[in-house]
Amino acid sequence: MNSAPSGVVVPAPARATKTSIFGGLVGVFIELYDNAVYGFVAGTLAVVFFPGDEPATGVLLTFVAFAIPFFFRPLGAAVAGSWGDRFGRRRVLLGLITLMTLSTGLVGVLPSFAGAGVFAPVALVVLRVVQGFAMGGEPGNGNSFLAEHAGDGRRGRVVSYANAATFIAMLLGTLFTAMLSAVLTPAAMESWGWRLPFLLALPMGVVGLFIRRAADESPEFTAAKVEGEVTRSPLREAFSSRETVRGMLMAIVLPLFNSSGYFILFIYMPSFMNNEMHFSAVQGLLVTGIMLAVGTFGVLYAGRLSDRLGRRKLLAASAFAMVVIGFPCYWLLTQGSFLLATIGAVLMALCFAGTNGVMQVTLAELFPTRVRTVAYGVGYNAGTAIFGGAAPLLVSALIVATGSTWVPAFYLVLTSVFAGVAALRIRETAFDPLKR
């Protein structure tokens, strides 16, 4: 990339920037596609991979397998983030997309519990752990890569493309799974239909790998390397700075609503509507699909708006809006009406889009280039592991323990309160250059 002798970074050519943008968001697309598919076919996976005659127990065990990898995400963030800050974002992103593609695709060829016994769920968990490691490295490297390519004044817009890609990925998973559920019998779905969404990740990953190979390295990292500002121990340096440690704590608290909203609204909700509210599987997936279509446009608008109004206002407004409408909208979901459920879900999705479209660029702006990927990644993934990945498991267990179907609403509103308060405590970063 171009850099002036004075150290002032010269923006990348338009063509290279577009290629790099696609390179940055393609890994996030595959990551969210996998998570979405896993949530959407959780009921089927419970039958395929776990024994027992009680469906609720099987679903609970399936969400245990869903939650375990998220506790490996901070490890992936620490390792891949340190490599990204030492060797460059692009090289690490190539390795991460390879890991994610293989571990996701291989889920589609695993044997069932009936055919392989305990080996089947063990193999599922192992592949999910590999996915967790890769996913841990993706946000810090991928979103930093995008923010560093974007240039001042349009970081919110550019990074929101990755956020929109997550919605499109989930929408693709939703529509594909809904189609399979509609055209296949339950027996066919349990026999082989559930494998198809996972196998689709293989060709998607190959395309993504070629796109990332064509992308240029981040101009911010390139300039830091030329000027001798690349540190040999990014993780140690991140924890040795009080300002960076504070930023990492904010990276845990700020995304609370972002994490809980994603996993409750888009991963847990289809299973909840089917098992607890007795909607058909197709109806649950269609409500989710409508939410995702609305959310795609919402995050793009939020990213652009944040470049004009700032990050803090949108983050706080979105979180507190969920506090206000969370319980009324959830009540609509529990009335047994497809129309009312759709209205409630769409309103909550709009609140979620307001924070999701701004969150990742805000986190990238909290940290300097020399430790950005590791500090961002460790903080964000620690919070996601605790409050996001464990959310379906926690909510399922609390519903069983309390008998109340209102548990997800309480979880959403509570995390929104903390996220909104945290948003009011950060300094506005939208109008400043990235920290060096």
Architecture blueprint of SSEs:
Layout (H helix, E strand, L loop, with lengths): L13 H27 L1 H8 L5 H13 L5 H15 L1 H19 L5 H4 L2 H32 L4 H29 L2 H8 L1 H5 L1 H14 L4 H8 L7 H7 L1 H12 L2 H20 L5 H29 L1 H23 L4 H28 L6 H18 L1 H12 L4 H19 L11
Helix pairs in contact: 1-5, 1-7, 1-8, 1-11, 1-15, 2-3, 3-20, 4-5, 4-7, 4-19, 5-7, 5-11, 7-8, 7-18, 7-19, 8-16, 8-18, 14-19, 15-16, 15-18, 15-19, 15-21, 16-17, 16-18, 17-18, 17-21
Features:
single chain, mainly alpha, 436 residues, Growth Hormone, Chain: A, 0% strand, 21 helices, 80% helix
What does this structure look like?
The protein has about 425 residues and is mostly helical. It has a single domain (about 15-425), classed as MFS general substrate transporter like domains (Growth Hormone, Chain: A, Up-down Bundle). It has 21 helices and no strands. α2 crosses α3 (about 55-65), α5 packs antiparallel against α7 (about 120-150) and α15 packs parallel to α19 (about 370-390). The chain is globular. The relative contact order is 0.16. Belongs to the major facilitator superfamily. Metabolite:H+ Symporter (MHS) family (TC 2.A.1.6) family.
What is the CATH architecture assignment? Answer: Up-down Bundle
Topology as a string of helices (H) and strands (E): HHHHHHHHHHHHHHHHHHHHH
Please mark out the parts with pLDDT under 50 across 5 or more consecutive residues, or reply none: 1-16
- What class would the helix/strand composition place it in? mainly alpha
CATH topology: Growth Hormone, Chain: A
The end-to-end distance, rounded to whole angstroms, is 17 Å
Shape designation: globular
Mean pLDDT, nearest integer? 85
The CATH superfamily is known as: MFS general substrate transporter like domains
Beta-strand percentage range = under 5%
CATH class: Mainly Alpha
> Treating each run of at least 4 consecutive H or I residues as one helix, how many helices?
21
Largest sheet: none
Write down the oligomeric state: single chain
Q: Give the strand tally.
A: 0
Domain Major facilitator superfamily (MFS) profile: 20-427
Family: Belongs to the major facilitator superfamily. Metabolite:H+ Symporter (MHS) family (TC 2.A.1.6) family.
Transmembrane segments: 21-50, 56-80, 92-110, 116-137, 158-180, 192-211, 249-269, 281-302, 314-333, 339-359, 380-400, 406-426
InterPro entries: H+-coupled_symporters, MFS, MFS_dom, MFS_trans_sf, Sugar_transporter_CS
